[in-house]
Specification:
The structure is a homodimer. Chain A has helices spanning 3-17, 41-44, 51-59, 64-68, 80-89, 106-111, 122-134, 136-143; strands at 24-29, 32-38, 70-74, 93-96, 115-118. Chain A is α/β, with parallel strands linked by helices. Chain A has one domain (1-25, 32-138): Cytidine Deaminase, domain 2, CATH 3.40.140.10. The first copy, chain A, has a 5-stranded mixed sheet with strand order 2-1-3-4-5. Chain A starts with a helix and ends with a helix. The model of chain A has no long low-confidence stretch (mean pLDDT 96). The interface between A and B is medium-sized, with 33 and 33 residues. Chains A, B: GO terms for molecular function: diaminohydroxyphosphoribosylaminopyrimidine deaminase activity; tRNA-specific adenosine-34 deaminase activity; zinc ion binding. Chains A, B: Homodimer.
Chain lengths: 145, 145
């Protein structure tokens, strides 16, 4: 596995250790991580800080040109909010750990001309499956089901 | 003008007074404001805290049932990120101050079964027009153009 997906998984595991939803993300520009994040629903009482949003927030204000050269890695298929943020900034590519647990707005990303790569990574799947089994209500609250 | 659009405009004006992008929003449940917010790009260095996102964040974690009974008021047509968040939580209705300055993802909201009402309010239009004239770069950075 490449270092960037490993970093996203490390974020997800950190979230789990904090008692949160184990979804992590990193924003990568020219081979360097410029933002790391994980879901903070539990930790910050936040409905908007999904992993991808937290990574974007932690990268801070970037010029439009930078976003267009970025790849965002996320352990789980991005929901319509996160996909909307990725589309807003015209991020070039999205690398997704898995979409078996949840199929997000991938089609919308593709339609916006964004490259989408899905890994179906076993460790990403295990993280989510174990979490949902233990905290089904928290998962449904987070994804708005 | 109803009190809720007035409250959203008050948020936009507060943002302007702070040196920020003048877009405000309030989340209303059963006739009561449960979250207020305004764009915080400048104030917090945030790429994700648009007015609508800030109002959702400030409302905190709400049960799915509450979102489905909510109306969100925003002074400007919601971009694809904010529309994605509104769609994620299944907010019932969106009341938009104006969409002349910027036409957001309204069609996507309608397709998701969300009621959309556009007011073309003169004070909302003035706020944005004056701001863009004075800070064109900040506006383009915020909306990702």
């Amino acid at each position: 596995m490449d270092e960037f997906m490993q970093a996203a998984i490390a974020e997800a595991k950190q979230g789990l250790a904090e008692g949160g939803v184990p979804i992590g993300s990193v924003l990568v520009h020219q081979g360097k991580i410029i933002g790391r994040g994980h879901n903070r629903r539990v930790q910050s009482g936040s409905p908007i800080l999904h992993g991808e949003m937290d990574a974007l927030e932690n990268a801070g204000r970037q010029p439009a040109k930078v976003y267009r050269e970025c790849t965002i890695y996320t352990t789980l298929s991005p929901c319509c909010m996160c996909a909307g943020a990725i589309e807003l900034y015209g991020i070039k590519k999205v690398v997704i750990g898995e979409n078996q647990t949840f199929m997000g707005a991938e089609q919308r990303l593709r339609e916006a001309g964004i490259e989408v790569e899905v890994r179906q990574d076993a460790s990403c799947i295990d993280l989510m499956q174990n979490f949902i089994q233990q905290h089904p209500q928290l998962w449904h609250e987070d994804i708005g089901v």
